[in-house]
Amino acid sequence: MFDHVELQRLRDSSLRMQGWIRKETFSPANEKVLRRFSSWEVAELIFGVNQNTFRGRLAADPALPSGEVEPDGRQRWFSLEEINELRRKMRINRKALMPRRPAGKRAIRAAIANFKGGAGKSTTALHFAHAAALDGYRVLCIDFDPQATLSHSMGLSDVNEENTVWGIMGRDLIHETERMNAATRGAETGRGVPERKLPESVRGTGLGDLRATDFIRPTCWPTIDIVPSCANAAFVEFASAQYRHVNPDWSFFAAVDRWLGALPDDSYDMIIFDCPPAIGYQSMNAVFAADVLYIPSGPGYWEYDSTTSFIGQLAEALEDLTGFADFPAGKSKAFIDVRFLLTRYEPANDLHRAMRDAFGKVFGDRMAEQVIEHTRAVEQSGRFLSSVYEIDYREMTRETWRRARSTFDAAYTEFRGVLLEAWDQLEDAS
For 372-386, how does the pLDDT look when each residue is reduced to its tens digit (9 = 90+)? Predict the structure, then answer.
């Protein structure tokens, strides 16, 4: 018989194995360290310029970062901090290398969501975040998934549930209840409204005293921060049901949106949500706060079936929220854009090609033109809790590495274009 004690024993055994894997994968200090990037990568793959032109600019201006030189003197390697300094200071053909960011607007938000586990949500979120950082953007990732794949891939494992989305929601409940209690009551009738009281199990957490920034953790990427998740955060669904009971007027689905609204508008450029494979309290917070919804799916029939169920149930869930006071009269939650993205795609697979055609016929121009191909390098990077961008191309043939990177580069470039168009439609920050 397997009761909770036996399950905990299995969990503890698995955690010990996770620790061993981290030691084998990360630095000797058990911390993930971002590698350096070669001058070839910086020139051709990051800045998109000729390598000789790039080297000429470096030689012409000794004040620019020069990176670290290999012992044989053939190649220079740059940290991301040095790359960003080059981006700020260097001009190629009179053009600046800084990425486009609409002026006077807050960060653009994109949710990566679907029902199906294994659809590539975390892989897509991880690679889009890394590609955006290499593109010069400042990125905030929010891991809504208790499986915490994105958090682990970003190098975080020692996370308390209070510092996850659950903590943000608990803090919001406390602040919203205090706001409601402090508001003028009974102005029309002269009768007082009963005070909403929170139990000690909520008030005593100390979440109400935390600052908005206390939930954000740095990563080994200097321009990527994350609100991490952890396995213990799985009980957020149970806790949130309790929270709604103690204050039925609390709009639970808007907690993360309100929290993001408390951050300075210029703190980040892009905010990427990695959602759990279910519609619940956490995922509803993600979709409510998102400007753009990206729905990844594998190229099989069951993935297609799951995607169909997901958008149907999401539509019903969003319709149910329309009556809350957070929506202006007659309005409902609307995304600026929605896109479907095929992942784990194999061009030589007849079934995959047929399913790609089927997706295209159903979703039309909502279907992303680019796909994410399944390659050996992508599979290898996942085994080592890394993205293709973090893997040194010298660890495999350059052609294998370039093929894997090119599929994510193309998908990210399209993703960036979608976000920039949506960004232009955002209202200016007040």
Answer: 998 776 666 555 578
